[in-house]
Design brief:
The protein is an alpha+beta fold. The chain is built from 6 helices and 7 strands, in the order αβαααββββββαα. Strands 1-7-6-5-4-3-2 form a 7-stranded antiparallel β-sheet.
Length: 170
Amino acid sequence: MKLKTVSLYAVGALVALTAATYALPRHVSTERVAVVQAAPEDVLALAASNSGFQTFNPYRTMDPDLDIALFGPDTGVGSGFSFDGKDGTGSQTVTDITDKSVVYAIDLGPMGQPTQSITAVATDTGTRVTWRVDADMGFNPAFRVFGLFMDSAMGPTFELGLDNLAEAAA
């Protein structure tokens, strides 16, 4: 084959591959659930506090050199922290609190702005805690491909966080 023909096939394949990424989901979620031996209000009190969150923050467990700077009120809407560590930099801010959940805005700069929540509901055996993140992968083809692996990448981190929470809330 001539170089021109091979080049045209290569460009065509690249265009087709890029176009195919737009068939991947734009909105992705990861969620983990655990039952902890603590009252829902105790779980939510930790989750709604910038210092309380640090007692179970899984990224601190994975990165002992993680730099954390608390900001805003100690608890409630506006409470948050910035972070800088081996897994990146950004901030997390409490944006909403109900009797069952705490919602956070995460700012990862060019990596995105996912929304995270921790929900705590009483059960017969303890408190069912759900840790969830929702992300919009936008139109970036690389982000959409990453979205396919978000659950396997973040799931173990949430599991560690839930284990830490079970200890901190007990």
